[in-house]
Design a protein that fits this description.
304 residues; mainly alpha; A middle domain of Talin 1; two-stranded antiparallel ribbon; 4 strands; 81% helix; 3% strand; globular; NaCa_Exmemb
């Protein structure tokens, strides 16, 4: 039964990602927003919904290692695994002129949460600071995300249908991710795997599967701005929204390994993506292969 749920989850992720990308692209055209902004906001937040649900549930259940490990592991997987797979499928363009503010937000969020983890806890006050960062990010994204009217094409999909496809795709993605995470976690616990490892790997990758499905399908459909914006937006939401909201609900104790071992990887991947965006203007296929190799190195070197 567990394996059947795993397969059903995979199918749900595929179809959910397909409809989400098509719907989000149409929404962007209707509101004359760039696909990058839709990827950073609607798609980024929507595909981060599983992380939010899992982290809040874990924190309330007295499993803080899963809550924090889920966010940090997801941010690492988003760049190394998801962008790696997407770049192998199709080279990704990263328009720095459109994305520089958002890359800055990602770097700022990463540095902020690293500082917060140093004392072994994310407090309610720190959660409020992270939530304020989320509001600032959303405000900036929508204020600067309009495209010129002559650049906008409205397309043939009615607005109601575009929103229905977007929201329906998000719902299916969340359901699929939930099925996958539950079944994989059950198997891991049967083999005696620790909560920190489960949070950093199975739960983190499992809750990142909506991002993987969405970015991979966006790459196949040549919607590279959505593929990249989805990952950058998700990384920002993971820190500002998920850790912020979770800490507001209940302070989160932090295992020392997160600040000492995992945060350097989170920071390195964020800085590395920014450098690649500035120097190369995107991710060629060879960069995708290197990102996937780096993710394998992370799994091995951190002792997971």
């Amino acid at each position: 039964m567990t394996y059947l749920l795993f397969v059903v989850g995979l199918v749900a992720l595929f179809f959910g990602g397909e409809y989400l990308v098509r719907g989000a692209s149409a929404v962007a055209r209707h509101f004359r927003l760039s696909p990058m902004v839709i990827g950073l906001t609607i798609v980024g937040f929507g595909t981060s919904a599983p992380e939010l649900l899992v982290s809040v549930q874990a924190a309330l259940a007295g499993q803080p290692a899963i809550a924090i490990g889920n966010v940090l592991g997801s941010n690492i997987a988003n760049i190394l695994l998801i962008l790696g797979v997407s770049a192998v499928i199709a080279p990704l363009l990263i328009p720095v002129r459109k994305l520089w503010r958002d890359l800055g937000f990602m770097l700022a969020a990463t540095a902020t949460v690293w500082f917060m983890l140093l004392d072994g806890q994310v407090t309610r006050m720190e959660g409020a600071i992270l939530a304020i960062g989320l509001i600032a990010f959303l405000t900036t994204a929508f204020l600067t995300g309009k495209v010129d009217e002559e650049e906008a094409t409205l397309g043939d999909i009615p607005q109601w249908k575009a929103w229905a496809m977007t929201l329906g795709g998000l719902v299916v993605l969340v359901i699929g991710a939930r099925l996958l995470v539950d079944s994989a976690t059950e198997i891991a616990r049967a083999f005696g795997v620790s909560e920190a490892v489960i949070g950093l790997t199975i739960v983190a990758v499992g809750t990142s599967l909506p991002e993987l499905a969405t970015s991979a399908i966006a790459a196949i459909r040549k919607q590279t701005e959505i593929a990249v914006g989805n990952v950058v937006g998700s990384n920002i939401f993971n820190i500002f929204s998920i850790l912020g909201i979770t800490a507001l609900i209940t302070p989160i104790p932090a295992d020392p390994r997160f600040a000492a071992i995992d945060m350097p990887w989170v920071a390195a991947t964020a800085v590395g993506l920014t450098i690649l965006a500035v120097v190369l203007g995107g991710l060629p296929r060879i960069a995708g292969v290197l990102l996937l190799a780096a993710y394998g190195g992370y799994i091995v070197l951190t002792g997971i």
